[in-house]
Amino acid sequence: MLWCRPDVLLTLWICPLTCLMMSPCPPGCCCPGPGFLVLCESLGLRSLPRSVPLSTSVLSVARNQLCNVDHLLWSFSGLQELSLSHNLLARFPRGLPPSLESLLLQENRITYITTGALRQLRNLTRLDLEDNRIRTIQPAALLSLKKLQILTLKGNKLTRFPLNLPPSLTHLDLSGNCISSLDLPSLSTLINLQVLQINSNCLRTVPDNTFDYLPRLRSVDLTDNLWACECDILYLYRWLLSGRLKMATHLVCKEPIHLAQRLLLNLSVVSICPRVLQPHKLDLESAATNEPTEQDRMRKLAKEIIDSEEVTTKDPSQTRVLHYSLESLNYEDCLSQNQTQSIDPPHLKTTSLPKEEQLCRENTTAQRNGTSAVGTQSWLSTNRNDLLSNTHVLTPDSATIISLLAVSCVLLALVMLAVLILLKKVLVRQQRVAPTVEGSGA
Asked: What is the pTM of this model?
């Protein structure tokens, strides 16, 4: 923000004293020094003050009610910084002086950016358009800004990545929009880009090689998007595992349904893209032209990820996963990874998430009870039909158990009833015999 700069804060501190001594100055504004800084904020202005000195280099008319300032500032040939934030501007102001280096327009009502509006601003290094209503930016609207370094378009209504951005950009903020895809040609030209914020958008995947042509990129924010954790996301998955940049890696899957709300980096390659381990089928057309098929590309990418993610020991049943520690990986996350990493690839079959979690927990229980690792591996390597049949043999069905218990209860009741009847007959017989015995004795 303009008022966060040290020199501005200093002038604001001494402003009450200096404003009494300096003139001319617009009524209600603060002018610490001639030709330096003019602050006309929160005054309810509907038009620019007329008495602003033409030598002003920093002007702020933020938090007013300005609706149109077209061609009103052209005569300020030395103006370097201008703040028009928190006003009622419905379009990008026209006729601004070419000397501008910083332009703040956040929280207005701008809906589109045209090429002609910025054509003269060749010295602009910072442009802030945060929290407007921008839906459209003409393809060449920003290309003429050869010195632009910081561009903020946060909190607008963009549905696509801006085209033809100037290569001079170092910071680009596109968060809080509706962008559903990245334009690779436009992004690859940003060779000086250092910080990219595109969180809180509608991205589902990232095209291959998206970040490979950005040599100075050091920070990326991709959180809160609509990530589809399928085969097309393997490039982003591998790029995140590389850990070369400072960025948030807690990307949450939204699709497919069985992986929803799961962290992308807690998944294995097989759970993201099961077809990478399916039997290879040659595409006749691709084979004739010696071009790799889509399946070949997925296999190659998956192999690179697995090679960088795991280190296999002499015992093939034991693997050590890199990039994790006890602080970043808990017990439940470990179980969710084991459900695919411990399966023998040639016999892998896709199953639903609840069944995989149940099998993984049964496998863990068996290992605790003394089952050998080799036996567990062979159990998980069987096909789905054998697995289901073995499960029925080893684990009784709950309905069968209930039926057996019911039958046992009925049999027990019948036995008890028979015993009671037998006891009753014995007692009756004894009562009949007892009087006879007494009579004979008399």
From this structure: 0.62
Give domain status of residue 83, yes or no. yes
Is residue 339 very low, low, confident or very high in pLDDT (cuts 50, 70, 90)? low
> What digits encode the pLDDT tens for the residues 215-254?
999 999 999 999 999 999 999 999 988 876 767 678 999 9
Higher-pLDDT residue of 201, 275: 201
Provide the b/e sequence for 401-420 (b: ≥16 CB within 10 Å). eeeeeeeeeeeeeeeeeeee
Tell me the CATH number at 31. 3.80.10.10
How many structural domains are present in the chain?
1
Return the C-alpha torsion angle 202, 204, 206, 207, nearest 10. -110
What residues make up the domain containing 102?
A: 1-109
Q: Does 276 have pLDDT greater than 70?
A: yes
pLDDT at 316: 40
Interval 415-426: pLDDT, tens? 999 999 999 888
In a domain? residue 39: yes
Please choose, from the candidates 123, 110, 225, 235, the residue with its C-alpha nearest in 3D space to the C-alpha of residue 174: 225
Residue where the block lists tokens 């200096």:
18
CA–CA distance, 198 with 6 (Å, rounded to integer)? 29
Residue 213 domain-assigned?
A: no
What is the chain's length? 442
* Cα 431 to Cα 155, 420, 422, 423, 441, distances in angstroms: 99, 17, 15, 13, 16
In a domain, 346, yes or no: no
CB-based contact 128:100 (threshold 8 Å): no
